[in-house]
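Collaborator request log, item 7. Partner lab (contact: R.S.) asked for a structural prediction of Probable nicotinate-nucleotide adenylyltransferase to inform their binding assays.
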Amino acid sequence: MPDRPGGGPLGIFGGTFDPVHFGHLRLAEEAIDGLGLAAVRWIPAGQPALRGAPQVTARQRLAMVRLATADNPRFAVDAAEVEAARASYTVPTLERLRQADQCGAQRPLVLLLGADAFAALPGWHRWSSLFDLAHLAVAHRPGFPVDLASLPAALADCWRGRFRVQPASLSESPAGSIFSFAMTQLAISATEIRALLTQGRSARYLLPEQVIAYIRDEHLYPEY
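Returned to partner:
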Protein backbone atom coordinates (compact mmCIF):
# COMPACT_ATOMS: atom_id res chain seq x y z
CA MET A 1 0.00 0.00 0.00
CA PRO A 2 2.13 2.91 -1.23
CA ASP A 3 1.67 6.35 0.29
CA ARG A 4 1.56 9.65 -1.49
CA PRO A 5 4.90 11.51 -1.50
CA GLY A 6 5.27 14.10 1.21
CA GLY A 7 2.48 12.79 3.42
CA GLY A 8 2.33 13.80 7.08
CA PRO A 9 3.91 11.75 9.87
CA LEU A 10 2.71 8.14 9.72
CA GLY A 11 2.40 6.03 12.85
CA ILE A 12 3.64 2.44 12.56
CA PHE A 13 2.06 0.01 15.00
CA GLY A 14 3.37 -3.54 14.89
CA GLY A 15 2.45 -6.40 17.16
CA THR A 16 1.18 -9.93 17.52
CA PHE A 17 -2.40 -8.81 18.25
CA ASP A 18 -3.32 -12.20 19.74
CA PRO A 19 -6.07 -10.94 19.91
CA VAL A 20 -6.33 -7.23 19.16
CA HIS A 21 -8.17 -5.37 21.97
CA PHE A 22 -9.28 -1.94 23.13
CA GLY A 23 -5.88 -1.18 24.68
CA HIS A 24 -4.27 -1.47 21.24
CA LEU A 25 -6.97 0.64 19.64
CA ARG A 26 -6.76 3.35 22.27
CA LEU A 27 -2.97 3.57 21.97
CA ALA A 28 -3.20 4.12 18.22
CA GLU A 29 -6.02 6.66 18.55
CA GLU A 30 -4.28 8.71 21.24
CA ALA A 31 -1.00 8.62 19.32
CA ILE A 32 -2.72 10.25 16.35
CA ASP A 33 -4.18 13.01 18.50
CA GLY A 34 -1.21 13.48 20.82
CA LEU A 35 1.47 13.52 18.12
CA GLY A 36 -0.44 14.99 15.20
CA LEU A 37 -0.06 11.92 13.01
CA ALA A 38 -1.72 11.72 9.62
CA ALA A 39 -2.68 8.07 10.21
CA VAL A 40 -1.56 4.81 11.81
CA ARG A 41 -0.57 1.76 9.81
CA TRP A 42 -1.13 -1.49 11.71
CA ILE A 43 1.32 -4.30 10.90
CA PRO A 44 0.46 -7.69 12.42
CA ALA A 45 3.56 -9.86 12.80
CA GLY A 46 3.67 -13.00 10.70
CA GLN A 47 5.93 -15.02 12.99
CA PRO A 48 6.84 -12.96 16.09
CA ALA A 49 10.56 -13.24 16.77
CA LEU A 50 10.65 -12.29 20.46
CA ARG A 51 7.86 -14.43 21.89
CA GLY A 52 6.36 -17.87 21.64
CA ALA A 53 4.14 -18.95 18.78
CA PRO A 54 0.70 -17.29 18.87
CA GLN A 55 -2.30 -19.46 19.69
CA VAL A 56 -4.00 -18.69 16.36
CA THR A 57 -2.71 -18.35 12.80
CA ALA A 58 -1.22 -15.19 11.35
CA ARG A 59 -4.13 -14.85 8.92
CA GLN A 60 -6.64 -15.12 11.76
CA ARG A 61 -4.83 -12.39 13.68
CA LEU A 62 -4.76 -10.26 10.53
CA ALA A 63 -8.49 -10.77 10.07
CA MET A 64 -9.16 -9.65 13.64
CA VAL A 65 -7.10 -6.47 13.18
CA ARG A 66 -8.97 -5.68 9.99
CA LEU A 67 -12.30 -6.11 11.75
CA ALA A 68 -11.23 -3.98 14.72
CA THR A 69 -9.93 -1.08 12.61
CA ALA A 70 -12.41 -1.10 9.71
CA ASP A 71 -14.56 1.79 10.93
CA ASN A 72 -11.67 4.22 11.54
CA PRO A 73 -10.53 6.08 8.38
CA ARG A 74 -7.28 7.07 10.11
CA PHE A 75 -6.25 3.40 10.44
CA ALA A 76 -4.85 1.17 7.69
CA VAL A 77 -3.71 -2.45 7.87
CA ASP A 78 -0.52 -3.77 6.24
CA ALA A 79 -0.63 -7.52 5.54
CA ALA A 80 2.90 -7.89 4.15
CA GLU A 81 4.46 -9.50 7.24
CA VAL A 82 1.68 -12.08 7.43
CA GLU A 83 1.98 -12.86 3.72
CA ALA A 84 5.78 -13.18 3.92
CA ALA A 85 5.55 -16.26 6.18
CA ARG A 86 8.85 -15.54 7.92
CA ALA A 87 10.01 -14.25 11.28
CA SER A 88 9.05 -10.60 11.73
CA TYR A 89 11.70 -8.10 12.80
CA THR A 90 11.03 -4.39 13.06
CA VAL A 91 14.13 -3.08 11.26
CA PRO A 92 13.53 -5.09 8.05
CA THR A 93 9.87 -4.06 8.19
CA LEU A 94 10.86 -0.40 8.34
CA GLU A 95 13.38 -0.93 5.55
CA ARG A 96 10.54 -2.27 3.42
CA LEU A 97 8.41 0.77 4.23
CA ARG A 98 11.27 3.07 3.20
CA GLN A 99 11.23 1.73 -0.33
CA ALA A 100 10.12 4.14 -3.04
CA ASP A 101 6.95 2.20 -3.80
CA GLN A 102 5.91 2.36 -0.13
CA CYS A 103 6.47 5.41 2.08
CA GLY A 104 9.74 6.53 0.54
CA ALA A 105 12.84 7.92 2.23
CA GLN A 106 11.52 11.30 3.35
CA ARG A 107 8.13 10.74 4.96
CA PRO A 108 8.35 10.87 8.77
CA LEU A 109 7.62 7.42 10.19
CA VAL A 110 6.80 7.06 13.88
CA LEU A 111 7.15 3.66 15.52
CA LEU A 112 4.58 3.40 18.32
CA LEU A 113 5.62 1.53 21.46
CA GLY A 114 4.30 0.91 24.93
CA ALA A 115 6.65 1.76 27.79
CA ASP A 116 7.38 -1.92 28.52
CA ALA A 117 8.29 -2.65 24.91
CA PHE A 118 10.51 0.41 24.81
CA ALA A 119 12.37 -0.66 27.96
CA ALA A 120 13.12 -4.02 26.30
CA LEU A 121 14.46 -2.40 23.12
CA PRO A 122 18.12 -3.40 23.62
CA GLY A 123 17.03 -7.03 23.17
CA TRP A 124 15.60 -6.33 19.71
CA HIS A 125 17.28 -7.28 16.44
CA ARG A 126 19.51 -4.37 15.28
CA TRP A 127 17.71 -2.04 17.67
CA SER A 128 20.04 0.92 17.21
CA SER A 129 19.25 0.90 13.47
CA LEU A 130 15.64 1.79 14.25
CA PHE A 131 16.62 5.45 14.53
CA ASP A 132 17.96 5.48 10.96
CA LEU A 133 14.50 4.51 9.74
CA ALA A 134 11.90 6.05 12.06
CA HIS A 135 11.17 8.19 15.05
CA LEU A 136 10.06 6.34 18.19
CA ALA A 137 7.03 7.39 20.23
CA VAL A 138 6.54 5.88 23.68
CA ALA A 139 3.14 5.73 25.39
CA HIS A 140 3.08 6.41 29.12
CA ARG A 141 0.52 6.82 31.89
CA PRO A 142 -0.88 10.36 32.24
CA GLY A 143 1.25 12.18 34.79
CA PHE A 144 3.90 9.45 34.86
CA PRO A 145 6.53 10.08 32.15
CA VAL A 146 9.14 7.49 31.27
CA ASP A 147 11.52 6.92 34.20
CA LEU A 148 15.06 7.02 32.82
CA ALA A 149 16.43 5.38 35.96
CA SER A 150 14.46 2.23 35.13
CA LEU A 151 15.90 1.91 31.62
CA PRO A 152 19.05 0.02 30.58
CA ALA A 153 21.99 2.40 30.55
CA ALA A 154 22.45 2.38 26.77
CA LEU A 155 18.77 3.11 26.22
CA ALA A 156 18.72 5.90 28.82
CA ASP A 157 21.69 7.53 27.07
CA CYS A 158 19.88 7.20 23.77
CA TRP A 159 16.81 8.89 25.26
CA ARG A 160 18.85 11.81 26.57
CA GLY A 161 20.38 12.44 23.18
CA ARG A 162 17.27 11.94 21.04
CA PHE A 163 14.24 12.99 23.10
CA ARG A 164 12.20 15.88 21.73
CA VAL A 165 9.40 17.57 23.66
CA GLN A 166 7.41 19.14 20.84
CA PRO A 167 5.52 16.75 18.52
CA ALA A 168 5.56 19.45 15.83
CA SER A 169 9.24 18.64 15.27
CA LEU A 170 8.22 15.20 13.95
CA SER A 171 7.81 16.75 10.54
CA GLU A 172 11.30 18.25 10.47
CA SER A 173 13.04 14.95 9.66
CA PRO A 174 12.02 11.45 8.58
CA ALA A 175 13.60 9.62 11.54
CA GLY A 176 15.97 9.74 14.48
CA SER A 177 14.12 11.23 17.48
CA ILE A 178 12.21 9.94 20.50
CA PHE A 179 8.87 11.35 21.57
CA SER A 180 6.37 10.37 24.24
CA PHE A 181 2.64 10.73 24.65
CA ALA A 182 0.18 10.14 27.45
CA MET A 183 -2.25 7.28 26.99
CA THR A 184 -5.39 6.54 28.98
CA GLN A 185 -4.60 3.45 30.97
CA LEU A 186 -6.77 0.42 30.25
CA ALA A 187 -5.90 -2.63 32.32
CA ILE A 188 -6.35 -5.00 29.39
CA SER A 189 -3.89 -7.57 28.11
CA ALA A 190 -4.08 -10.15 25.35
CA THR A 191 -2.72 -12.76 27.78
CA GLU A 192 -5.61 -12.17 30.19
CA ILE A 193 -8.15 -12.20 27.35
CA ARG A 194 -6.84 -15.54 26.10
CA ALA A 195 -7.08 -16.92 29.64
CA LEU A 196 -10.69 -15.81 29.95
CA LEU A 197 -11.62 -17.32 26.60
CA THR A 198 -9.91 -20.64 27.26
CA GLN A 199 -11.92 -20.86 30.49
CA GLY A 200 -15.14 -20.23 28.62
CA ARG A 201 -15.62 -16.84 30.29
CA SER A 202 -16.80 -13.60 28.70
CA ALA A 203 -14.32 -11.14 27.19
CA ARG A 204 -17.03 -8.62 26.38
CA TYR A 205 -16.03 -4.94 26.74
CA LEU A 206 -12.33 -5.88 26.47
CA LEU A 207 -12.27 -6.06 22.68
CA PRO A 208 -14.63 -5.08 19.86
CA GLU A 209 -17.83 -7.05 19.42
CA GLN A 210 -16.96 -7.88 15.82
CA VAL A 211 -13.69 -9.45 16.99
CA ILE A 212 -15.53 -11.45 19.65
CA ALA A 213 -17.94 -12.68 16.99
CA TYR A 214 -15.04 -13.72 14.75
CA ILE A 215 -13.38 -15.59 17.64
CA ARG A 216 -16.64 -17.40 18.33
CA ASP A 217 -17.33 -18.22 14.68
CA GLU A 218 -13.80 -19.49 14.06
CA HIS A 219 -13.64 -21.39 17.37
CA LEU A 220 -10.45 -19.63 18.44
CA TYR A 221 -8.91 -19.91 21.90
CA PRO A 222 -11.04 -22.94 22.80
CA GLU A 223 -11.50 -24.04 26.37
CA TYR A 224 -8.76 -26.49 27.42
